[in-house]
């Protein structure tokens, strides 16, 4: 028996949205941010769940995000759909752009959703899962702020630059992965620090470039890319495609703009959407071939990415989201204060 509380997805969404709108976010902004935060908590993604509310409020207080932003969707007949997020959080901008880019991808086979001038504090699986639930494959990526040393370097330059991929599966949950291109998300380091735990080796270096397992020294130093030169190159690609190419901040520019890593980062986001039906060009059944590959992976006993998340989601949907007394106290403090 624990002292944990079970709260329904609906009740937690109303509570989080209320905290955000009381703080000054418009209803559409507050609702979209709340949906994303609660989806993270529902899926046991603690590093992007209710713990992020405080960061959203800090970013608002520092006047680094527009709480009443009205995103504008811009489209022509090309494959590029652009949403100007109006300096707001990315969540509402994505929700507005998603049906438009899905329609474009169905028409052209491939389309991109570019979100400019947004603040992004969240995971990227909501983006690719939304597309997969519409029968579309998608890749999503964005820079962050400079906190990661390139392989062979020792100073923060790259962001933790997340990359996500989604593939629709007939009649089931999609194949989705979503990871930071650093060894771990920065949110994880902060959770280790709060828990008073040492980091695993190989995650970070301190401010002098020496390997460290102390989360405080790591937060003051640099995180490391996953997979050495390979993760470093993928992270660089994200800086180029989802920063330089779309006319938005790279991670060092985002850090310069903010002047701190304690606020949510401002930059852009790139989502590339494919219609597997159109892309296969009649050369076989893409969905069936995809299923054969995914089932063969699972058939070896390997766990599919997002499986943990989908299991957590099922539990949350049936019994509610489990929050600790400390998390409930924090929510009450934010609501009342
Ligand atoms: P994890 O390492 O926790 O997970 C990465 C992916 O791998 C997930 O899809 C996960 O599925 C899957 N996975 C984990 N373990 C296994 C396994 N043993 N076998 C198969 N698949 C596995 O993610 P990170 O810590 O790198 O990133 C966490 C989140 O942080 C991401 O959602 C990312 O988008 C977000 N982030 C956001 C940033 C931003 O600027 N907005 C910056 C950096 C990160 P499952 O979830 O089911 O465990
Ligand atoms: O967890 O690395 C992270 C992160 C950075 C910005 C948002 N999330």
TrEMBL record:
One Pfam family of this chain: Ldh_2
Keyword Oxidoreductase: yes
A single GO molecular function term of this UniProt record: oxidoreductase activity
InterPro entries: Mal/L-sulf/L-lact_DH-like_ah, Mal/L-sulf/L-lact_DH-like_NADP, Mal/L-sulfo/L-lacto_DH-like_sf, Malate/L-lactate_DH-like
Keywords: Oxidoreductase
Recorded superkingdom: Bacteria
Family in the record: Belongs to the LDH2/MDH2 oxidoreductase family.
Designated name of the protein: LDH2 family malate/lactate/ureidoglycolate dehydrogenase
């Amino acid at each position: 028996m624990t002292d944990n509380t079970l709260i329904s997805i609906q009740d937690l969404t109303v509570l989080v949205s209320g905290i955000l709108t009381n703080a000054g976010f418009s209803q559409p902004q507050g609702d979209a941010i709340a949906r994303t935060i609660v989806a993270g908590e529902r899926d046991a993604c603690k590093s992007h769940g209710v713990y992020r509310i405080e960061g959203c409020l800090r970013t608002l207080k520092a006047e680094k995000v527009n709480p009443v932003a009205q995103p504008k969707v811009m489209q022509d007949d090309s494959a590029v759909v652009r949403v100007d997020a109006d300096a707001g959080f990315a969540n509402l901008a994505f929700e507005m752009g998603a049906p438009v880019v899905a329609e474009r991808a169905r028409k052209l086979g491939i389309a991109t959703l570019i979100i400019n001038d947004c603040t992004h504090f969240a995971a990227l699986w909501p983006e690719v899962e939304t597309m997969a639930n519409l029968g579309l494959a998608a890749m999503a990526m964005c820079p962050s702020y400079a906190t990661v040393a390139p392989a062979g370097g020792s100073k923060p330059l790259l962001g933790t630059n997340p990359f996500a991929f989604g593939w629709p599966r007939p009649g089931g949950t999609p194949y989705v992965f979503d990871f930071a291109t650093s060894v771990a998300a920065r949110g994880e380091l902060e959770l280790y620090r709060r828990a008073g735990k040492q980091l695993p080796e190989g995650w970070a270096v301190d401010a002098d470039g020496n390997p460290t397992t102390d989360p405080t020294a790591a937060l003051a130093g640099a995180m490391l890319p996953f997979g050495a030169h390979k993760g470093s190159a993928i992270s660089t690609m994200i800086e180029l495609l989802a920063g330089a190419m779309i006319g938005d901040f790279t991670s060092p520019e985002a850090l310069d703009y903010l002047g701190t890593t304690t606020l949510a980062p401002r930059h852009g986001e790139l989502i590339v959407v494919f219609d597997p039906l159109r892309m296969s060009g009649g050369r076989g059944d893409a969905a069936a071939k995809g299923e054969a590959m995914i089932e063969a992976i699972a058939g070896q006993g390997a766990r599919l990415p997002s499986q943990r998340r989908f299991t957590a989601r099922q539990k949350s949907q049936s019994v509610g989201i489990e929050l600790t007394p400390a998390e409930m106290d924090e929510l009450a403090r934010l609501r009342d204060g």
